[in-house]
Amino acid sequence: DAGGVFVGFNDFGMRGFVLQDDAFVDLEHPDAFRLFPFAISSTHIVGFWGATEESWYDNAVNPSFIAARNGDHYDIQKFELDGFSGVGLTGLNEAGQMAGVAYASPDSLPHVFQLDSRTAEPRFLPIEGHLEPFVTGISAEGLIHGQLFILEEEPVCSGHGSLENDACICDEGFELDPL
Known about the structure:
This protein is an all-beta fold. The protein has no helices and 15 strands. The strands form five sheets. It has a four-stranded antiparallel sheet, with no helix packed on it. A four-stranded antiparallel sheet has the order 8-9-10-11, with no helix packed on it. A hairpin with a 3-residue loop joins β4 and β5.
């Protein structure tokens, strides 16, 4: 945040922390295997909640957390969205707006969402199906920023042929058009 407070995690997330006034404050919750802080404001922190040792790294099946500053420690609460198998809160601004990704199922691509507050209904943003989004933050104006990973589109055979091992095989009597 603007006051020189940093969040991070050591040893690939073995423990999330806050660095404040040259002192480390561990972020821990008895129900979480690991906490990964991603964004901080003057009053809150948001990040990923790794539920178990077997699944702590899988965003599609884990909730997130919101931590409120309370003196020299943080009160941490789990954050989930109804109807989604996993949620990743990765953006937070001073107005309390949050952004992240939500997974409809463990095998689905993430959906980008924005919240105006913790209790507000999420607003989902349209992303084309061949793009995998990852939100890295939200600006003071509420603009979401992040990364889009381009997924290879599935090859499709049309006309007179079938797909075998990612190659179109023409039906008898037809030839592959090289263009």
